[in-house]
Amino acid sequence: MLLLPRHPVLAAPALSSSPWPSPSRFRSLPCTHAPTSASASTTASSDAKATPSSFSVEDYLVNRCNLYPSVAARVAPELSATIRSPSKPDAVLAFLASAVELSPPLIAVAVARDPTILTCSVPRTLAPRVDELRALGFTTFQIGLVVVRCGAAVFRSGALGSRVQFWLPFLRGRVDKLVAALKGNPGLLTADVRTARSTIALLQEEGTLTDDDVGWFAISYCSKLLVASPDEVEAVLARADEFGVPRKTRAFKDAIVAAFSATPERLAWKAAFFRDELGWTEAQVKTAAAKMPTLLTVSAERIRRNWEFLTTEVGMDAERVASFPALLRYDLEGRLVPRFQVMRVLQTRRLWRGRDFNNIAAITEEDFVAKFIRPFLVKVPNLAKIYEAAILKKEGTVVGDTR
């Protein structure tokens, strides 16, 4: 089960906890204000007196871009063949500080991520693309994020505007969503639109993805799937078939997500976890995977803790949990425990005779309060307090007075 080899190009992106490289890559900045055009021009004129042979790209990256020497030494070779004087990079730094309003720390981040930004022509490359983004509704701050996250490649492309217009409909026209998507996948604005269109059409046909689903993919860890080739997507779809979910159904979308976000080896290990540690049968694992393929991407710790609660406190068995696998994904302290306590109070008072905890756990918060809290406040005045206290409590199973 789930042992097909994964295409190396489609490895899910590793998400960092911060949108910027580690601060240790940059030197402490002597000032907190971005350099003005005037100060940049003064520096440029003074530096221009240096002969080409005396100009050092590495020193420039340290002194003008505030990179640490070790980082400057690593990225300098990318620029040495194209930058022989400070005139062009000075113009770029001045433009980023004035037109895009990037602070010195963010300029340092942008240069460290893509040093070739310093080789761009301001009048022929940067300024026209910035004007184009403004015309499409980007704020100055958002343009700065595009610079930092995407680098020079985006601005060197004459197709930037058409690429932005291609993605916006999937994000309900929201520029902020597109900028957020670039955090996880800057390649959205450099990808070939024709390939992306074919890939999305294939996903929508086989997985019944809506435009909103495509938008969700774009801002999730699945965004790289949207710019993969159709052949690569077919490989993912083939792995998704192993979950036993029919294509062209809404549930197949979850199978696509699971197949892309974890390696076959990881999925096989998780299936073995259910059998070996939880005592499930192969049939029960297949039932749960078919109902919720993404269950096999949930952490083993969460599954273990939820399973222990559902079996010891609620009294459910493997067959029942496998039929409602979402129970293993829900927040234990924030959802399962508080709702179970309310159910137990109502059962003790003989105010509710139902025994299907799955329905209680699955409904929305609004519906739960409307059906299981408000109607019983007359007979159990402290029921809301019991529920609220349970939500706030990080550990334990029973809180509050249930008399």
Automatic annotation (TrEMBL):
Q: Report the InterPro entries cross-referenced here.
A: MTERF, MTERF_sf
* Record SMART domains: Mterf
Has keyword Transcription regulation? yes
Query: Could you tell me the superkingdom of the organism this chain comes from?
Result: Eukaryota
List, alphabetically, the Pfam families matched: mTERF (PF02536)
| Annotated GO MF terms | nucleic acid binding
Give GO BP annotations, semicolon-separated.
DNA-templated transcription termination
| Keywords, ordered alphabetically | Transcription, Transcription regulation, Transcription termination, Transit peptide
User: Record's family?
Assistant: Belongs to the mTERF family.
Q: Provide the protein name.
A: mTERF family protein
Q: Which organism is it from?
A: Paspalum notatum var. saurae
